[in-house]
Structures are given as C-alpha cells and as structure tokens.
C-alpha cells in the first residue's frame, strides 16, 4: 500500500508550480541595478604564446567600462585544484597554475584571454573585436598517447612533461595480478575509449558579481551545485576575500550533472571586477561558449584484461587507462580517474586480484572533470564490456557468467580498498529478467528479423559508490576538503519549520523529498516544512550536491538535527505535561505521556520554546533550533542490473532502442516518483553517451562538436519508455535513513547495456564484430559491419 | 549580432527597393539567418523582412496544374496545404526542423540559402520546379549552383516556387543525429516522361541529380531497378557524422526506399 | 532604435528597441518576463518557445520587430488568472515531467500547441512534436507521459510490464 505522505510517498513536487508558471528564479533572471556586462575574448587557437595584447582601441569603444587581461590578476591566486593525487612512486601529481585570464600562453580553444566590461553586452562584444592580439601559434597536443611522447609540445612549459600522474592501485597487488594473468586458463582483452562528453545542463552557466561598498561585502550569484565550496575556493584561494565578507548564492539552477560543481574563472572574474569597478558585473554564457568553457567529462582510453580459470571464475583484472585532464586541472579532476574509478573496478564480482593503472595527461583541450557518475561509468563500462566479451569468447550465457561471479556475502572487502556494506545482486538480476521479459526476447527477435532488422539484447550490472566519505579518509587520499554535510532545523514559534541544508537542489526535488523525512519523524504535515538551500548567508556550511550524496549525507545531517529537536521538544513537553522525560512519546505531531491520555500538541511545545513563560529555563535554553553536521563512516553502494534491447537496421547501421529495463537497489526510498525520475534521466544520458554524444577535437585542437549542430543531444524520439524497478532494496547499514543514492545509477548502468545489445544484434546477423567505440552512430555501426 | 536596421515592406516592389541599399539583406523566416547573425558570421547593414508581403504567402494551383507556393510561405503551411495535392512535398515540409521552426522557416528562405543539407532543394530539383523571382523564372536545373550558391543575383527575391506535380513521389531523409538536417536525403519523383532523383545532404557540391538512377527508374520504376547501381564516394561530404563512403552508400539505400514508398 | 508594440499575455506593451533585438530579449530584458529561457544559440533547444499569433515559435530566433502588432503568449500567460494551472501544466506536475525546470516553459508551450492541433496524439506523435525541445534531466519518459495524460489518455500502463 503506497503511502500518501512521509517517507515512501510519491509526493508531488512543490517546486514544480513555480517552474511550470515561469516564476522560477534562475541566475540569469537576476539583474542588479546598474550592472555592467562582461564579454570574454577567448582563444581560437589550441596552443599559443601570447606576445602582446593591445586593448587601447577597445578601451576607447562606446560604453566600455574597462578591459581586463591576465596582467590585472598579478598577485591574485589562480583557480585551485581540490584534490591531490599521489603517484605510483609516492610523488605528488604535477599541478600547474590555472590563471583566471590567460598569462603567457593560451592552452585550449576557449581559454579566456581578456574580459571586456561594458554598459551593454553588445558593446562589450564589439569592443572585444577591437582588441589586438599577437599570439604565436604553437603545436597543439590533443591525442593523449602522443602527448606523452618524447619531444611532444608541452602544455605547461614549467612541467617536466604532459604527464600529470602515473597512478597504480593497488600497487602492492601488481605482481600477483601479472602472475595470475600469465597463468590464467583464459584471458579476455579489450581496448576501448570512453568518449569525451559535454554535460550540457540546459541552463548555461551565469555569474553575477555584486559588490557593496557600504559593508565591503561581495555577493556572487552563480549557477553552482555547491555555493559554500565556491565561497571557500574563491574567497580563500583566488581572491583573498574573507568568508564573512563573501556571500555566494546559487538560486534555481537549471541542471548540473557535475559540471556546475567546479569553481570557474568567470565566477572569480565577476567578483573581482565588481570590486574593482564598484559596480555589478554580469556574465551569461551562450551555449557555444559553454561548449568551450564548461568542464568536459569522461575521455578515457583503456585496455582491460580479464583472467578466468578453467571453470570461468574471474581470477584477475588488469587495466591501463589514459585519462585526459585537458589543459588545466579542474577542481576535482584528479580524483575522477583514480579514487572514483579504480576503487570501483571490482564491480559486482568477487575477483580476488585487481590492478589499475591510470596515466593522467595534459592536452590542449578544455579541462575534464566529473560528469554524472564521474569515474564510475568508466569503470563499469570497461568491466561490463569485457565480461560480455568473455562470455562470447567462451560461448557461455552472459547472465550466467555474471551470476557465477557475483559477490554473495556482505560486508565484502574488495581488493581495491572499499568495503561493500550490503547488496543482493542476484535479486536485482532476477527482477531484471522478469521486468525486461527476457523470456519473450526470442519471439521479438524473430519479428525484427521478419522485417529485415537485427535485434540484440544487452545486459549490464553495476555497482557504484556514493556519498564519498569519511572526511579523514578522503583527506588521506588527497582531498583538500571535507565531505560531510550539514543541516539546521529551525522550528518556528507556531510550529512551522525551516530546514537550512548544505545540499543544493537543481532538479533533484529536495524541496519536496527532504520535508517528507522531517514530517515523518515529527508526525506533522509536510506542508509545514520548508527547505532553504543555495545561499551561503542562510545555510550552514555544507558541501553541496553531487555524487548522489544529498539524501545519504545531507539527509542524514537533517535526521540528526531533527533528533536533537525531538530530544529538546520532549524535554519541553515533559515540563508542560509534568511527566518524566523518559515517558514522553511523540506520535502524529503530539507529545503524550506513555500509558495516559495526557498529551500536548506540537504547536504548543514550539510556542512554549519561544514564549517561555511556563518553561524550565533553569534546565534548557529557549528556542528550538538545532544544527547537525554528518560525516558518513563509509560510502554507500547502490547496485543494479540493466537490460537494453535494440533493433538495428543493417542497411544503414541505425540503432533504435526498443526496450530498456532497470532493476536498482537504492536501499530505502523516500520519494519513489523522484527516484524513478532520476533513473529515467540517467538512462537518457547513458543512451546519449552510447549512441549519440561525442565531443571531438581535430588534430590542431579545434573543437569540432561545438554546438548542438554537431554535438548530438538525445531527443524524445531517440529513447523509449523505460521500465524501472527499485523494489530489491537492501538498506544502507551505516546511515540513519538506510538510503544509498540514485542520481547517477542510470548514467552508469546504461552505456554498457546499450553497447552489449548492439554487439549482440550484429553478431546475430552473422558478423563477428566484438567491439565498437561509443557513440555507436549509424556510420560507425555500418562501417564495423562492412569489415 | 552586429547592429543593423530593420525594415518590413508589404510589397515585393518595396522589398526590392529596400534591398538596393548597400549591405542590405533579405530576412525570411530567419531560422538559419538569425543563428548565423548571432555567431557574427554576417554583418548586414539592414535586414529587409519578407514576412509581411501578402503576395508571397500561400499555396495554390495554377492553370497548368502546378503547385505554386509563395516564397514566404512557412513550412507548416506547406505541410498542411500541399497534403492532398502533393503529399510527398507535404511530408517533406512536415519533417523539416521542428514544429516551431516550421512555423517560421520558409520555402523561399531555404531555397535561397541552398544549405547542402536542407530538404527543400531536393524537392525543387527532383520535381523540376521553377524558381520565380521578382524579375525572372529560373528552372531548377539552372538554379542550384553548389554549396550555398544559386543563380540568384544580389537583391533578387524568390517570390514563388512552382512545382509540377508528379504521378508518384517520395522523400527519404536519413537525419544527421545532432542537427537533424539531412545526412542524406533523396527525393524521387515519377512523371509521365520520366523519373527524377535528387540528392541532398551528401555532396560537396550541394543538391544534385542521380542521373544513372533516373535512367534505370524511368525504364522500370521499382526498387529492383536500382540493383547494382551505386554512387561514387568522390565529392561526397566527409564529416563527424558520415564518411564520403557512408553517404554514398546511404544514397543508394534511401533511393530504393523512396521508390518502394512511392510505388 | 524604433518602437515596437505587441500584446503579451493580454497586456499591450511597447518598447523602443534596436533592429537586432530578439523577441526573447525583449521579453526577458525589456519586459522582465523571465519565464521564457535561452538554452542555446542555434535554435535547437526550445527553452524559448512562445506562442506568436497562435503559433509556437522560438523566440530566440525571431526579431522583436517581427512581432510588431502580434499577440504573444508566454509561459506566464498559460495558467488561469486565478493561478489554476492548465491541463498541460498540471499533468507535468502530476507525472513528474520536470526536474530542474529550465526546459519546462518551452516544453509546456510546445505541448500546449500540440494538443490544440492533435488532441489525442500517439506516443510517436508526441515524441516527434518534441523534436525541437531538448531536456537533459528527465530522459523524456515523464514528459511524454504527462503530455499523453494531459490529452486524456490512460497512462497507467506505461512501462509497467
């Protein structure tokens, strides 16, 4: 019986009304009186030495307030990197500077060279054309392996090479893994590319810097997933503005998918310029600008080997990955191919020996950082593709091979440092077989074949790690930040509640789901609870939303704070009821004395807290407001099994997704409607990666897929309805809600399922194609079938 | 966009006069021109809107039985009003861009721009249509002159496109996955005196007629007539979305499908 | 600069705007009606769709002066004056057809027009009608479902096998 409120209810989203009626408040909707506009002149070459920048003519253009160049940032910090990886040899990664505006060299197409601030955007853009640049073009490095060749052009002259780090994990396992592979009964090898993607939230990035001379305070309105992280990075490391004089507001944000985690040059610029000019400065990215300035995602080139014994048990995995960092280290870039990738290489399987090697490489391309899933999709893709290939080589059923190697006992310590607390991979696979109607596949294949089409079935399992933690551990791994979160529960005198949370909602529906939790705990109506987020001046210091962490981490903080509220409210109630505190029960918004009919309503207790006339002032303080910080003791490990069924037109190579099913284990679920929506969206993006999306540079470092004319976004006609299920729940064992996180699962679980299905379809047509790199565009599929 | 003036005449004559100014440029539906202006790839001094000219709007049939479409007629109107008279043309129009683009984009704008991946040029060429301008009539075979290049002179306006209506016709579009323009589009039109086949999206020279297929289909209008025929990859477009070989291959596939659908 | 006048959501408005002013800029910046969004610059994403003289149009690809004398409806004008959401808006909320909300105004404007022209579309027709509206959050599942529901069709069986 579905609930109609509280935890487990599919409560409709309260935020929808403003979004559906045009009343949303996105950053570009914010205009500050008297604001000026900035236009960034960006490099149109991938690599060049800046000989001179002459801004004199531009400065004289109508409406121009001031033209800034890199020299204006003398003495100002560069954009910091938030994660330091230590390499195989115990040395820290190479960490080049990242200026706000380019100095000395430009290092990728889109690298900002100068910033023109003018009364109107048109004037700023006109003036930018009058800037005279003398840039000596240098050879660009684009291909990662070529970038590591002796004599390759260096992205950063001051570094020994283009290698950021050479990471081995777990280095002590290497010899044993090599030995196991040498002695294996069978080794399946696969070389593959995880295609570079552009996150493309539909709202382009925007930043408005507003300086208030009266109190020397700066406000930055920005399209961010984590306002406090931006305040810390920009205030402490870039501009040196004390945090109490810096407010960062991320209002309604139109999607993030990782790319709005990072601290960007444009944010620092508008804040800096507004202080210099004593005038608000606004920047709104065009989509074309977004393609060359938003951090990109993925871009791994990998070789994976899977060793099996004579009984088809997995005995070892060895992988070697080249991970593109782009021209500079974006905020969390170094962590993605390492700690968010290597630690997931066990997947759902009890492979005893694993060794992961990652070489991170600088190239003359846009920086690469976390995009939905971040490292985990790359791990899952290579593992699940190689397992599928192994099944084909060995002539065994791909589901049976997976089942045979599933981890079956929990907790399970993997050979790649993490410990899965709970899960049931057999249950999700059973559920998948049912909801995907695998039994009916042969009949559907025959129908397709009767039309001259090929049909394929692809299976995938995934495990992911969410709510990255605990802080002391990630600190040892190189994180330069904590990974807790925080919530303040402020109960008002009349009993309504404001919950200030560190998590940020940019589509996840926190404003609806979070109150469901608090309402359930207190037994009051959800509508009495409001979530406040996105403004550093209103909320406690929280780390924001990414990595499917909001409910698991910030939600847990909210639970802890609410527990404190209950504890104090019970004390007040016990005073009002003249009963012992231990006898007070809270149920349905009412405090009662156990075993009696004496009770006091929620609102009476909250009023007493703020009008403390009849109140134990000697024991407790007035008021009812509590804050909790929550630092998880482990990751959470959502898992699942996915199935994709495709039809392939052998004459054109065009693939159509006919059916898609997902059986996920997210632990407990607060709002199933929102959870399913998250899975749908993730699957849509995963299908995009598998079939459509590709961010491509030519050999000179020019971005070829620089707009929606060439970067293929999934549209409604490219996807089917999805069948999703989350009933196989093994609750997380270490957070108070038993939740695991659901935001990235779809994007992690779907690409291998799609590719496995296409390979299956091609094989069914009698062509021995074993791999095609994503995206499986019609041309690539057709070409593969011609060989 | 750079700054420009805007003028919206109500007659062709006024429009022609307005376009006589230096660097003046006609603006039809703007679905290609406005994005181009946003990228600052053009710098007109003045845009002369053609959307307010009543005589350039609408679909009708002339005494010769030709379908006459005003140059400023949006795709959505063609899709609706050509449906009974020339279904293949209506179907083509109803699959250009998306609903909002079809409400603004016009046949004259598309034919004047002659984007190598646009749909309309294939219909114009395969139908043997006549492009009517403010001062002359141009046969389709003379009109298209390569990538973004046409017989139009500076300031010349397409006021109408006249389509002879074939006995049978079909357009097959294989979309480029990002832009949804034609990666390859083939329009096949069967007339009493023969079959015409026009291909868009594929060639570095823009829309072209596949004469070998026309000959075979004129003798036998069936997909089998195309067996063994292929287009050379030489001169075909190669880009992120398709190699020249792939495009050449798709031309044969799409032509067969168009014939099958038309017959 | 020249004067342009039009009716927006029933209100007569005018402004002195440059020739290159886009309709969406006029709406967002001059009228400060920020419900209509801009998500791309190549006329593809559809976040900017409004109705001009009863037709869905991408307001980022139309000059403000082209709308002289036109009757315009934006997302702000879709709900009833008393705030009651339209059938399409309500279906989007009921079926979780939006997440971040950025593409939503354009989706609602396109869907509203579709249902006027085709009151009971098939799933395929709905998907085709959304060709020019990109959503990055929902995977389209609940958008298509919401539009089918708004058309009065039973959506309870969708993907519930």
UniProtKB/TrEMBL annotation, chain A:
<dbReference type="InterPro" id="IPR008274">
    <property type="entry name" value="AldOxase/xan_DH_MoCoBD1"/>
</dbReference>
<dbReference type="InterPro" id="IPR036856">
    <property type="entry name" value="Ald_Oxase/Xan_DH_a/b_sf"/>
</dbReference>
<dbReference type="Pfam" id="PF01315">
    <property type="entry name" value="Ald_Xan_dh_C"/>
</dbReference>
<dbReference type="GO" id="GO:0005506">
    <property type="term" value="F:iron ion binding"/>
</dbReference>
<dbReference type="InterPro" id="IPR016208">
    <property type="entry name" value="Ald_Oxase/xanthine_DH-like"/>
</dbReference>
<dbReference type="GO" id="GO:0016491">
    <property type="term" value="F:oxidoreductase activity"/>
</dbReference>
<protein>
    <submittedName>
        <fullName>Xanthine dehydrogenase family protein molybdopterin-binding subunit</fullName>
    </submittedName>
</protein>
<dbReference type="InterPro" id="IPR037165">
    <property type="entry name" value="AldOxase/xan_DH_Mopterin-bd_sf"/>
</dbReference>
<keyword id="KW-0500">Molybdenum</keyword>
<feature type="domain" description="Aldehyde oxidase/xanthine dehydrogenase a/b hammerhead">
    <location>
        <begin position="21"/>
        <end position="139"/>
    </location>
</feature>
<dbReference type="Pfam" id="PF20256">
    <property type="entry name" value="MoCoBD_2"/>
</dbReference>
<dbReference type="Pfam" id="PF02738">
    <property type="entry name" value="MoCoBD_1"/>
</dbReference>
<dbReference type="InterPro" id="IPR000674">
    <property type="entry name" value="Ald_Oxase/Xan_DH_a/b"/>
</dbReference>
<dbReference type="InterPro" id="IPR046867">
    <property type="entry name" value="AldOxase/xan_DH_MoCoBD2"/>
</dbReference>
<keyword id="KW-0560">Oxidoreductase</keyword>
From TrEMBL, chain B:
<dbReference type="InterPro" id="IPR051312">
    <property type="entry name" value="Diverse_Substr_Oxidored"/>
</dbReference>
<dbReference type="InterPro" id="IPR036683">
    <property type="entry name" value="CO_DH_flav_C_dom_sf"/>
</dbReference>
<keyword id="KW-0560">Oxidoreductase</keyword>
<dbReference type="InterPro" id="IPR016167">
    <property type="entry name" value="FAD-bd_PCMH_sub1"/>
</dbReference>
<dbReference type="GO" id="GO:0016491">
    <property type="term" value="F:oxidoreductase activity"/>
</dbReference>
<dbReference type="InterPro" id="IPR036318">
    <property type="entry name" value="FAD-bd_PCMH-like_sf"/>
</dbReference>
<dbReference type="InterPro" id="IPR005107">
    <property type="entry name" value="CO_DH_flav_C"/>
</dbReference>
<dbReference type="InterPro" id="IPR016169">
    <property type="entry name" value="FAD-bd_PCMH_sub2"/>
</dbReference>
<dbReference type="Pfam" id="PF00941">
    <property type="entry name" value="FAD_binding_5"/>
</dbReference>
<protein>
    <submittedName>
        <fullName>Xanthine dehydrogenase family protein subunit M</fullName>
    </submittedName>
</protein>
<feature type="domain" description="FAD-binding PCMH-type">
    <location>
        <begin position="1"/>
        <end position="168"/>
    </location>
</feature>
<dbReference type="InterPro" id="IPR016166">
    <property type="entry name" value="FAD-bd_PCMH"/>
</dbReference>
<dbReference type="InterPro" id="IPR002346">
    <property type="entry name" value="Mopterin_DH_FAD-bd"/>
</dbReference>
<keyword id="KW-0274">FAD</keyword>
<keyword id="KW-0285">Flavoprotein</keyword>
UniProtKB/TrEMBL annotation, chain C:
<dbReference type="GO" id="GO:0051537">
    <property type="term" value="F:2 iron, 2 sulfur cluster binding"/>
</dbReference>
<dbReference type="Pfam" id="PF00111">
    <property type="entry name" value="Fer2"/>
</dbReference>
<keyword id="KW-0408">Iron</keyword>
<feature type="domain" description="2Fe-2S ferredoxin-type">
    <location>
        <begin position="2"/>
        <end position="78"/>
    </location>
</feature>
<dbReference type="InterPro" id="IPR012675">
    <property type="entry name" value="Beta-grasp_dom_sf"/>
</dbReference>
<dbReference type="Pfam" id="PF01799">
    <property type="entry name" value="Fer2_2"/>
</dbReference>
<dbReference type="InterPro" id="IPR036884">
    <property type="entry name" value="2Fe-2S-bd_dom_sf"/>
</dbReference>
<keyword id="KW-0411">Iron-sulfur</keyword>
<protein>
    <submittedName>
        <fullName>(2Fe-2S)-binding protein</fullName>
    </submittedName>
</protein>
<keyword id="KW-0479">Metal-binding</keyword>
<dbReference type="InterPro" id="IPR051452">
    <property type="entry name" value="Diverse_Oxidoreductases"/>
</dbReference>
<dbReference type="InterPro" id="IPR001041">
    <property type="entry name" value="2Fe-2S_ferredoxin-type"/>
</dbReference>
<dbReference type="GO" id="GO:0046872">
    <property type="term" value="F:metal ion binding"/>
</dbReference>
<keyword id="KW-0560">Oxidoreductase</keyword>
<dbReference type="InterPro" id="IPR036010">
    <property type="entry name" value="2Fe-2S_ferredoxin-like_sf"/>
</dbReference>
């Amino acid at each position: 019986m579905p609930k109609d409120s509280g935890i487990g209810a599919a409560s409709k989203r309260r935020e929808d009304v403003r979004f559906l009626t045009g009343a949303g408040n996105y950053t570009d909707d914010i205009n500050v009186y008297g604001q000026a506009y900035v236009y960034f002149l960006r490099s149109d070459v991938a690599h060049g030495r800046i000989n001179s920048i002459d801004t004199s003519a531009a400065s004289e253009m109508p409406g121009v307030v001031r033209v800034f160049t890199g020299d204006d940032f003398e003495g100002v910090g560069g954009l910091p990197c938030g994660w330091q990886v230590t390499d195989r040899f115990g040395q820290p990664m190479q960490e080049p500077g990242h200026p706000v505006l380019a100095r000395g060299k430009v290092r990728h197409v889109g690298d900002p060279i100068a910033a023109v601030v003018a009364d109107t955007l048109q004037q700023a853009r006109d003036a930018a054309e009058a800037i005279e640049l003398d840039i000596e073009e240098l050879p660009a490095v684009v291909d990662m392996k070529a970038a590591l060749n002796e004599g390759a052009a260096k992205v950063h002259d001051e570094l020994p090479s283009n290698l950021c780090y050479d990471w081995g994990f777990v280095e002590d396992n290497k010899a044993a893994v090599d030995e196991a592979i040498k002695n294996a009964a069978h080794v399946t090898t696969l070389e593959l590319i995880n295609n570079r993607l552009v996150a493309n939230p539909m709202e382009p990035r925007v930043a408005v810097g507003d300086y208030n001379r009266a109190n020397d305070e700066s406000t930055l309105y920005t399209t961010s997933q984590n306002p406090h992280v931006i305040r810390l990075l920009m205030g402490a490391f870039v501009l040196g503005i004390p945090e109490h004089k810096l407010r960062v507001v991320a209002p309604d944000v139109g999607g993030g998918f990782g790319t709005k985690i990072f601290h960007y040059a444009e944010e620092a610029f508008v804040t800096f310029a507004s202080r210099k000019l004593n005038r608000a400065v606004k920047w709104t990215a065009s989509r074309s600008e977004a393609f060359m300035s938003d951090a990109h995602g993925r871009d791994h080139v990998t070789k994976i080997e899977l060793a099996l014994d004579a009984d088809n048990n997995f005995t070892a995995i060895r992988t070697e990955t080249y991970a593109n960092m782009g021209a500079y280290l974006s905020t969390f870039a170094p962590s993605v191919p390492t700690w968010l990738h290597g630690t997931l290489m066990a997947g759902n399987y009890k492979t005893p020996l694993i060794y992961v090697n990652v070489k991170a490489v600088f190239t003359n391309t846009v920086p690469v950082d976390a995009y939905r899933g971040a490292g985990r999709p790359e791990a899952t893709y290579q593992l699940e593709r190689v397992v599928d290939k192994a099944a084909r080589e060995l002539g065994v059923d791909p589901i049976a091979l997976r089942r045979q190697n599933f981890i079956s006992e929990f907790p399970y310590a993997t050979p790649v440092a993490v410990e899965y607390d709970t899960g049931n991979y057999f249950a999700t696979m059973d559920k998948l077989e049912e909801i995907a109607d695998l039994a009916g596949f042969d009949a559907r294949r025959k129908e397709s074949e009767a039309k001259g089409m090929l049909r394929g079935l692809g299976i995938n399992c995934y495990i992911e790690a969410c709510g990255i933690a605990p802080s002391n551990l990630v600190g040892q791994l190189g994180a330069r930040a904590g990974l807790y979160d925080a919530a303040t529960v402020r109960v008002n005198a009349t009993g309504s509640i404001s919950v200030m949370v560190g998590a940020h909602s940019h589509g996840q529906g926190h404003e609806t789901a979070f109150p469901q939790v608090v309402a359930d705990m207190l037994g009051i109506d959800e509508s009495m609870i409001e979530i406040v987020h996105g403004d550093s001046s209103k909320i406690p210091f929280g780390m924001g939303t990414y990595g499917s962490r909001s409910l698991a981490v910030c939600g847990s903080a909210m639970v802890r704070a609410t527990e404190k509220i209950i504890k104090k409210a019970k004390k007040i109630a016990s005073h009002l009821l003249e009963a012992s505190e231990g006898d007070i029960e809270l149920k349905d918004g009412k405090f009662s004395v156990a075993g009696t009919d004496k009770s006091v309503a929620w609102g009476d207790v909250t009023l007493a807290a703020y009008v403390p006339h009849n109140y134990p002032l000697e024991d407790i303080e007035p008021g009812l407001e509590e804050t909790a910080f929550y630092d998880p003791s482990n990751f959470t490990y959502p898992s699942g099994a996915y199935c994709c069924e495709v039809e392939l037109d052998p004459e054109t190579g065009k693939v159509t997704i006919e059916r898609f099913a997902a059986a996920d284990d997210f632990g407990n679920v607060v709002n199933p409607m929102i959870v399913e929506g998250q899975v749908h969206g993730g699957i849509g993006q995963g299908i995009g990666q598998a079939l459509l999306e590709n961010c491509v540079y030519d050999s000179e470092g020019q971005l070829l897929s620089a707009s929606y004319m060439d970067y293929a976004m999934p549209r409604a006609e490219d996807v089917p309805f999805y069948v999703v299920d989350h009933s196989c729940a093994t609750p997380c064992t270490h957070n108070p809600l038993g939740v695991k996180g659901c935001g990235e699962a779809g994007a992690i679980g779907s690409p291998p399922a799609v590719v496995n299905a296409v390979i299956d379809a091609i094989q069914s047509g009698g062509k021995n194609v074993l791999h095609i790199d994503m995206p499986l565009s019609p041309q690539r599929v057709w070409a593969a079938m011609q060989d | 966009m750079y700054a420009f003036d805007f003028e919206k005449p109500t007659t062709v004559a006024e429009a022609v006069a307005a376009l006589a100014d230096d660097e003046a440029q006609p603006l039809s539906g703007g679905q290609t021109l406005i994005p181009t202006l946003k990228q600052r790839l053009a710098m007109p001094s003045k845009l002369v809107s053609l959307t307010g000219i009543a005589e350039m709007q609408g679909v009708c049939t002339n005494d010769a039985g030709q379908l006459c479409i005003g140059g400023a007629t949006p795709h959505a109107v063609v899709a609706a009003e050509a449906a009974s008279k020339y279904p293949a043309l209506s179907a083509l129009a109803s699959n250009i861009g998306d609903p909002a683009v079809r409400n603004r984009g016009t046949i004259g704008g598309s034919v004047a721009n002659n984007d190598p991946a646009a749909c309309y040029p294939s219909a114009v060429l395969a139908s043997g249509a006549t492009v009517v301008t403010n001062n002359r009539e141009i046969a389709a075979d003379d009109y298209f002159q390569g990538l973004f290049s046409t017989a139009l002179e500076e300031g010349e306006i397409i006021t109408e496109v006249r389509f002879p209506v074939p006995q049978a016709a079909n357009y097959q579009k294989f979309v480029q996955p990002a832009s949804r323009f034609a990666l390859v589009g083939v329009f096949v039109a069967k007339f009493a005196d023969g079959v015409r086949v026009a291909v868009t999206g594929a060639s570095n020279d823009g829309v072209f007629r596949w004469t070998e297929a026309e000959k075979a289909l004129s003798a036998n209008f069936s997909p089998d007539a195309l067996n063994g025929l292929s287009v050379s990859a030489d001169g075909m477009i190669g880009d992120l979305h398709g190699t020249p070989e792939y495009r050449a291959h798709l031309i044969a596939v799409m032509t067969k499908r168009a014939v099958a659908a038309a017959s | 600069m020249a004067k342009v006048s039009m009716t927006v959501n029933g209100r007569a408005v005018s402004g002195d705007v440059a020739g290159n002013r886009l309709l969406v800029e006029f709406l967002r910046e001059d009228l400060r009606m920020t419900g209509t969004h801009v998500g791309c610059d190549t006329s593809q994403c559809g976040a900017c769709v409004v109705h001009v003289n009863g037709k869905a149009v991408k307001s980022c690809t139309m000059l403000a002066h082209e709308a002289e004398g036109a009757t315009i409806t934006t997302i702000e004008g879709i709900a009833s004056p008393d705030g009651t959401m339209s059938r399409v808006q309500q279906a989007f909320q009921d079926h979780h057809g939006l997440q971040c909300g950025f593409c939503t105004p354009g989706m609602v404007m396109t869907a509203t027009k579709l249902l006027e022209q085709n009151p009971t579309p098939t799933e395929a027709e709905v998907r085709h009608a959304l060709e020019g509206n990109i959503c990055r959050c929902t995977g389209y599942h609940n958008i298509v479902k919401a539009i089918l529901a708004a058309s009065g069709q039973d959506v309870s069986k969708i993907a519930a096998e």
